[in-house]
């Protein structure tokens, strides 16, 4: 989940080190209730210190109107109730509270067992994301994608990390077209030509695996295809420079330099983050040029998840206090991996 701020993203099981994950069957749900539309123009600024996830990510200001784009503007649909999780499945500590936890201080650095747990949760997250991508077709509701993701995660003994994080009502984030991040799955049907980011985080064996990708729905125009391609390149190039002792700020420079070649915007207000036993930990990984200090540590895990826009990178938040869209209605794309810093560079934990 975006730096995620995601929203403001047991004992070792038989899955650790193995590939025996359960794949789901199709069975959509349509139990829906109303959410109320509305939009807020927000200005967000990164503080020098982390006082809290909410303040860090969402510093709201005046109401304003979204400028119209060539595409039909995204509008809220009806949101179905949160889906149940079997009682035997381990829940993250934050689930009982509607208040997002603070960003945990200190890096997520792991011993051998912790690395195996991270590999297991990361692999399940990757398999779930891969399956979710196959569901992206015109006419499919984002709520149906949420149902499928939820079912596959719990079938494999995991907990969908977004569910209940700071009151987030669903099990996955689905961000369509101009939505930068944290889109809530609802009754809206995908349309031919849409792009959609699906952000999956899995809590398994007491560890989170966090990943996302942007998918094409039907026939997508060349402008959107190029944005998505370059966004993935931004992430891949950033991962390629990682390793022990490398400065975190090189990630932002690498991403920003590549996006600049195509005249794209780089979202500043949402970031990568440490991830492991907690959903969001230090360090904060900025995807833009910055002068923040800190260096990567052997056996550390964190996410890289650039959000790249065709136009303005300034965000507007809807009244649901989660969904964030571009100020000018231009398209936004995102890719994300959880990586492990190794002696030779970085391993991607969230790939099949």
Automatic annotation (TrEMBL):
Keywords: Aminopeptidase, Hydrolase, Metal-binding, Protease
Its job: Cotranslationally removes the N-terminal methionine from nascent proteins. The N-terminal methionine is often cleaved when the second residue in the primary sequence is small and uncharged (Met-Ala-, Cys, Gly, Pro, Ser, Thr, or Val).
Sequence positions that bind a divalent metal cation 1: 199, 210, 336
Cofactor binding note: Binds 2 divalent metal cations per subunit. Has a high-affinity and a low affinity metal-binding site. The true nature of the physiological cofactor is under debate. The enzyme is active with cobalt, zinc, manganese or divalent iron ions. Most likely, methionine aminopeptidases function as mononuclear Fe(2+)-metalloproteases under physiological conditions, and the catalytically relevant metal-binding site has been assigned to the histidine-containing high-affinity site.
Disordered: annotated span: 67-108
Family matches, as Pfam families: Peptidase_M24 (PF00557)
Alphabetized GO MF terms: initiator methionyl aminopeptidase activity; metal ion binding; metalloaminopeptidase activity
Listed cofactors: Co(2+); Zn(2+); Mn(2+); Fe(2+)
Family: Belongs to the peptidase M24A family. Methionine aminopeptidase type 1 subfamily.
Binding positions (substrate): 182, 280
GO biological process, one term: proteolysis
Annotated organism of origin: Beta vulgaris subsp. vulgaris
Annotated ranges, domain Peptidase M24: 116-342
Gene3D superfamilies recorded: Creatinase/methionine aminopeptidase superfamily
Enzyme class: hydrolase
GO cellular component labels: chloroplast
Catalysed reactions listed for this entry: Release of N-terminal amino acids, preferentially methionine, from peptides and arylamides
EC number: 3.4.11.18
Protein name according to UniProt: Methionine aminopeptidase
UniProt binding sites for a divalent metal cation 2: 210, 273, 305, 336
């Amino acid at each position: 989940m975006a730096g995620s701020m995601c929203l403001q993203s047991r004992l070792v099981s038989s899955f650790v080190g193995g590939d025996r994950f359960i794949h789901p069957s199709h069975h959509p749900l349509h139990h829906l209730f109303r959410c109320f539309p509305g939009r807020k123009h927000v200005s967000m600024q990164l503080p020098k210190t982390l006082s809290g996830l909410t303040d860090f990510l969402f510093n709201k200001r005046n109401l304003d109107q979204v400028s119209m784009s060539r595409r039909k503007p995204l509008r809220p649909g009806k949101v179905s109730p949160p889906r149940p999780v079997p009682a035997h499945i381990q829940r993250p500590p934050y689930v009982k509270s509607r208040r997002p936890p603070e960003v945990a201080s200190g890096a997520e650095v792991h011993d051998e067992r912790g690395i195996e747990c991270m590999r297991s949760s990361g692999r399940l997250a990757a398999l779930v994301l891969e399956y979710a991508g196959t569901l992206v077709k015109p006419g499919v509701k984002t709520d149906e994608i949420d149902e499928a993701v939820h079912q596959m995660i719990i079938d494999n003994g995991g907990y969908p990390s977004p569910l209940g994080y700071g009151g987030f009502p669903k099990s996955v984030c689905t961000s369509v077209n101009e939505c930068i991040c944290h889109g809530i799955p609802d009754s809206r049907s995908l349309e031919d030509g849409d792009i959609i980011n699906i952000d999956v985080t899995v809590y398994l064996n007491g560890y989170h695996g966090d990943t996302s990708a942007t998918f094409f729905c039907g026939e997508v125009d060349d402008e959107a295809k190029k944005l998505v391609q370059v966004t993935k390149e931004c992430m891949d190039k950033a991962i390629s420079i990682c390793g022990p002792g490398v400065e975190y700020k090189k990630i932002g420079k690498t991403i920003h330099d590549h996006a600049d070649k195509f005249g794209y915007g780089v979202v500043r207000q949402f970031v990568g983050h440490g991830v492991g036993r907690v959903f969001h930990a230090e360090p904060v990984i900025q995807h833009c040029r910055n002068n923040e200090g800190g260096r990567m540590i052997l056996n550390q895990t964190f996410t890289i998840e650039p959000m790249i826009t065709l136009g303005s990178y300034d965000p507007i938040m809807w009244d649901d206090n989660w969904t964030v869209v571009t100020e000018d209605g231009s398209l936004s794309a995102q890719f994300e991996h959880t990586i492990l810093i190794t002696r030779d560079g970085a391993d991607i934990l969230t790939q099949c």
